[in-house]
Each structure stands twice: as C-alpha cells, then as structure tokens.
Amino acid sequence: MSELLANTGTIAAIATAIVPQQGSVGIVRVSGFHAMAIAQTLFYAPGRQVWESHRILYGYIRHPQTQAIVDEALLLMMKAPRSYTREDVVEFHCHGGIMAVQQVLQLCLESGARLAQPGEFTLRAFLNGRLDLTQAEGIADLVGARSPQAAQTALAGLQGKLAHPIRQLRANCLDILAEIEARIDFEEDLPPLHISSMISEIDQIAAEITRLIATKDKGELLRTGLKVAIVGRPNVGKSSLLNAWSQSDRAIVTDLPGTTRDVVESQLVVGGIPVQVLDTAGIRETVDQVEKIGVERSRRAANAADLVLLTIDAADGWTQGDEEIYAQVQHRPLILVINKIDLVETGLITSWPYPKTINQIVTTSAAQNQGIDGLETAILEIVQGGKVQAADMDLAINQRQAAALTKAKISLEQVQETITQQLPLDFWTIDLRGAIQALGEITGEEVTESVLDIIFSKFCIGK
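RESULT FIELD:
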C-alpha cells in the first residue's frame, strides 16, 4: 500500500513560505475529521462571533493547558465538502516569520493532527474527487511557475483544458470498443462493422493525440526555462551585455580584461519563457590560478547550456581567439553576438572570416543599450524554429502525460495493424483497451499507487 494512501486521519502543515523577518502572514492548514475540534481547542474568539463554515473569526491562539496566548490570529473554517480537500479544513492565519507558525503547528500536532506529507492536501483533493490528476499537476506547475506564460499554461491545466480533450478521446475509444464487443457477443443480431469508418475514427483520435504530444517540448521549456551562456574572450563586453539585458548591475564592468572570475547569473523572461542567463569568465590561456578556475567553469557552463551566445568585439573583428572558442562550443545551439557595433562600420562585418555555419548573427552595443530586442528575437527563433511563439500556447503536457499519450498512440496503431491483417475481433479489443487505459492514466481514472507517490512527492508540504 502506498505510504501516501495508507496514512489517514487529520493532517496539519505550514501552508506559506516561512522566511525570517519577511512575510506579514503565516498560515497553518489543518484537514480531516478532527480539524474543527482542534480549532475549538486552540482558538479563542472574543465576543459573540459565530462559529460557522466560511467565516473568518478574530481572536487568539492559546495553549490548551496553560491558556498562554501564542499568537493573535484569524481563523478560517471550511466544512466538508466545500473545501480544498472536501474534508473539514481550518486555517490559522498567524503573524509571519518563524516562531508563531511553528508554535501553532506544534499545538495542532499535540492536539491530535499529524504532520502532512508533501502534496497530501492535494492528494486528498484528488482521492475525494475534487480534482483529476491533470488539475493536481496544474496546481504544482502554478506554484512553481517562473513566468507569466508558465502560470497561464498551468492555470489552463487547473481549469481542465487538458482533461477535457483527454476524456473525450477516451470516450471515443470506449465507443469503438463497445461497437466491437457488441459484434462479438451478438454478431448474428447486428449489422456488420463499417471497417473504413472505424479506421477513420481511430485516425482522428491518433491525430489529436499527436497534436497533444507536440506540446511536450514547449511545456518543458515553460516549466524548466532556458539556460543561456554568454561566452567569449575577455573584455568583449559580456558583462555589459548581461547588465543591459537584465537592466541591472549584476556583473562588474571595467576596461581590464579578466574582470569576471566566476559565472554570474541573472533570471529573465523572454517571450514568456524563463531564461537563466550565465555571464562567464573570458576564455583564454592564463597563468593566473584564480582566472584558470573561472575559465574552466566558463567551459562547463557553455557545455551545459541550452544556448550559447558567442560574443565578440566588433572593433577586433573575428580573431583567432574567437575561432578557438567557437571550436569548443560549436556543438551547442549558438548565436554570434557582435558587440560594440557602435565602434565600427556595419559593412565591415560581412568581410570577416567567421564560420559560415553560423546562421544566427546579432549586432549589439551593450554600452548604448542597443540590440537587445534583436537578441531576444533571435533566441525565440532558435528555440522555437520561428514558427510558434510561447505566448500563443494555452496547453502544454508534461513528461508523464506525454509518455501515456505515446503509449495510447502506439496501441491505436497496433489496432489499425490488427484490422489491416483481418485478425478476429477479439484481437482488436486487446490494444484498444491498452489505449483506453493509457488515456485514463493521464486524468487518474486508471492510475497506480506508485504513480501517485511520484507525482505528489514533488509538492511542497503545505500543498
């Protein structure tokens, strides 16, 4: 039995991020049969406030034995089934920080609750039928969203925009299965199957599945973001480029080569995609031991990046040093950034002997804050082939969902092969059931305990 499923009873956890001296409110959430009793034990509401569902009470949290006041707080009560978990839920809205919420949580545990496991509140919402599995995963994506577009896509999943087409596809497969099984059981009483019509229906289902699978890479990009490394020789303006792009002074900029000794990071959003930009130390041969370490880290960052911005100095043109760096990073997706373009005639660029395999070239003047828009456009073209903008996406599947959809598609292809080979109807149903089961795994209509463990273990404790 799954550990998450085996543990029942009333659970409690801190539902907000707790940071010392930051955050004005901290919330302790309790869910389960004894939630209301715990609230009545710990919370004192002065005056004639009414204790009823979906009302907020003002008062004090007190130690049940000593009656010592632990915190001045608000209490929110939500009786089943009108709650997140469809169980009785109470929330203590305490002062932010560390001590108040931790003391309140400890009192809840001493009063009969147990500490919730990661994702257990959402797991209970799923098990109690309030959410399907795609909506539960949408909640996790919304909490972890790193850009407005990622949040919008997660919200679409939470609103059921993925579950609806999946359920429709599964229903269509069930209809086809019912038609086949009816012929198996009552062959003499029913007209023959329209084979061509059935194959056409399966083709349509497979085409829709293929369309959904195609959103996987875009969804992964929105969830994990894009890692971009700015590399080049010392003093070509890499740090200036980072500062101009991020509109901050993240990197130290001087006229001295080798100023950046370590990888400097900045978080940006480009076209709805989270981007982690790494400003690396200038790559060159050096006897300085500290600079050597920085150069080696730069090489590792470039090799681990999703995209490399090879930056050169327009005043120097394409040099042997640039050629050597290009040889080290040419296996990665790459954009050539010609910086300090304000110092040269633009026409000179075409005569430089840079490799003709470089097909994305951007000119910038970081010091003048010029060319950043063109750089972002080039990045989107590299990432998305210039065809689909992230801002146009309303739906994107994750790896688990893509694996299940792929399994369903393969099963449908096997059904078509079975039909083509004119095998008995019983053989048709085998793979059709496989497709139905795979689609059910996405929404949770058919899911194993091990899958639930994996999904909900990635949630935070209070969710």
